[in-house]
Automatic annotation (TrEMBL), chain A:
It catalyses: RX + glutathione = an S-substituted glutathione + a halide anion + H(+). The gene is GSTU17_1. This is glutathione transferase. The lineage of its organism: Eukaryota, Viridiplantae, Streptophyta, Embryophyta, Tracheophyta. Gene3D superfamilies: 1.20.1050.10, Glutaredoxin (3.40.30.10). It comes from Vitis vinifera. Its EC number is 2.5.1.18.
From TrEMBL, chain B:
It comes from Vitis vinifera (Grape). CDD domains: GST_C_Tau, GST_N_Tau. Its EC number is 2.5.1.18. The gene is GST23_6. This is glutathione transferase. Pfam families: GST_C, GST_N. One of its GO terms (biological process) is glutathione metabolic process. Keywords: Transferase. The keyword Hydrolase does not apply. Residues 3-82 form the GST N-terminal domain.
Amino acid sequence: MATSDVKLLGAWPSPFALRVHIALNIKSIDYECLEENLLAKSQLLLQSNPVHKKVPVLIHHDKPICESLAIVQYIDEAWSSAPSILPSDPYDRAVARFWAAYIDDKWFPWLNGVANAQGAEAKKAALDQVREGLVVLEEAFGKCSKGKDFFSGDRIGYVDIALGCFLGWVYVAEKRNDVKLLVEDKMPGLAAWANKFCEDGTVKDVMPDKDELLEFANMILEARAKLNASSNN
Amino acid sequence: MAEEVKLFRTWSSPFALRAVWALKIKGIDYETIFEDLSNKSPSLLQYNPVYKKVPVLVHKGKPIAESLVILEYIDETWKQAPLLPEDPHERATARFWAKFGEDKVLTSIWSVFIKQGKEQEEAMVPALENLKFLEEELKGKKFFGGETIGFVDLALGWLGNLISILEEIVGLKVVDGEKFPLLSAWMQDFADAPIIKDNWPPRDRMIVKFQALRDATIAAAAAAATSK
């Protein structure tokens, strides 16, 4: 595959773009990374993703693919040689898709909800919900990993990518709220998994620095708070 | 072997319909278990502990939940009458539109139907924008899957039926034949297609159900507004 054929429109803080970086690394694909300024989106982004106007977008042979999990599956199918990202057995694939959908449809909105929660009580409820979700995912990890390092077994796969991309933002929520979400004694499997994930060769060079992410989050959330305060006057 | 495949569903669940259609299109024998959601069976709770919802497909004793996940499982396990195309880019596009239907179209349409007056007018704007994207996607095609029904048609198809029911309840045309000629034609073609047309839940029961749901939602919103 010609290397200039693969472009990723991303943004360094985006966990969804991170999923695609990791998938491309798993397949050892050379790609061009185009960093988007989400406050001043490029024409290429607007043309490639007219429906959502969001990152990530993968452009392969000039054809765009949107939605991070659709992109990850595309990468797995278009570059079908090993290592594979989804398992080969249809039932195992269904289990992997189920958990990725749970992460996107339930757990991530809860994590996102922490920043939006107003007042101490709402914040605590939001954080508790994130933790409850992690307990569900801890159980899933036990069943899926069967004693190995990752949800997919020996190497990073679909569910690892789907969840692992949020680890930086979990850290941000923990620091901003002075709590622990990934609690080692309640979620020993996930706690160990998180370390291995971040250290993995396909992840560590593309994962944003946690403290830079925290600084970014602080800046965004303070700007938003100021905007809300001024619009309420 | 009918005993090998079981589908847990309710009479009205549009998500379960997706699985019904897929199984019938592929000619797979299966056993249906109708659930009463106010009194869920121990089997359902055991097979879908995370959501406790229908549909659940059980194949050789192993459960799969989440209707779009079930559709992909059915497509990968039984290769006849494929639902997803073979080309990876086309598959990614299909997955994109199924997700768009789920995340955006459904919520924006529902928003129109549970609101009234000015709020309803405002809710129409995103709903119509979303429908326009679907209209665009149908250009040059009879179904989202091309000449034949595919994954996206099964993902979105129930929405067409529900829209016509909601339009009747509220007396409001959302998918106007002039503004959305392709989408209107698709809704009709899909509803009348073999297998699809034999499996709609009874329309009169659906009208009663969604009228009640709409009334309850509006009442709850009004109560919440006054208690603030």
